[in-house]
Amino acid sequence: MDIRPADITIDKEQDSEVLITKITQERADEYVVKEGRYSEQTVFDYNSRYDYVRESDYVVEGVYLESMPFDPREKDLKDHEVGAIARHECKV
Description:
Elements: E1 8-11, E2 16-27, H1 43-47, E3 58-64, E4 82-86, E5 90-91
Antiparallel strand pairs: 1-2, 1-5, 2-3, 3-4
């Protein structure tokens, strides 16, 4: 699957649209989440219950569209839900 920054994809588990902001070179078992309810876990740790997520999946970062501001002048995404998901967790 070819995903690039600015693409919009769907998080398979949440069935939510995600705006891709960054493609990392880290695998799901290497990428440690720094903030939020999954902090200090790897992306694989909290997604390993899903059969399609593999340790070797590379991670993409994104913003859930439903959490973005409605006012386009509001550019600070600091308070909006930002996530990191394994590439296989995305569907086109």
